[in-house]
Design goal:
By secondary structure, this protein is mainly α. The chain has two domains: 1-79, Four Helix Bundle (Hemerythrin (Met), subunit A), CATH 1.20.120; 81-120, no CATH class. The protein has four helices and no strands. Helix 1 runs antiparallel to helix 2 (41-77). The protein is flat, with a radius of gyration of 20 Å. The model has no long low-confidence stretch (mean pLDDT 88).
């Protein structure tokens, strides 16, 4: 992969990481605010339900942050864009859609078929 393309993906990943970290900071700030006490149990249950939903989303974002950091490390060590399963180059179109990917489309499809077979 050319230096120009690597720079493009590095900028893309860095922006994604910055956006995710900004969202995490907002969640921490919002959750640390003094919580209103709701005398109505239904209102309280609704608040707890909303909070649990938000925490599940943030957990997914936390996992994505780890993947983005790993992709940035792969750019630095020269292994970005190489399939960790077959060693072939991952297509640029696939990387544009999912820059944190570590598998080419063929290996990913094979992995998904294997997972589907195991679960059925």
């Amino acid at each position: 992969m050319t230096k120009q393309k690597l720079k493009y993906f590095k900028n893309l990943l860095q922006k994604q990481l910055d956006d995710l970290l900004y969202e995490v900071g907002g969640t921490v700030k919002d959750m640390s605010k003094k919580e209103e006490m709701f005398p109505d149990p239904v209102d309280r249950a609704s608040l707890e339900s909303d909070r649990n939903f938000l925490l599940r989303i943030r957990d997914r974002e936390r996992k994505l942050i780890i993947k983005v950091k790993e992709a940035l490390e792969r750019i630095e060590d020269g292994s970005f864009g190489i399939c960790e399963s077959c060693g072939e180059e991952i297509s640029e179109n696939r990387l544009k859609v999912r820059p944190v990917t570590t598998l080419c489309i063929n290996c990913k499809e094979s992995q998904e078929k294997d997972e589907k077979t195991v679960t059925t």
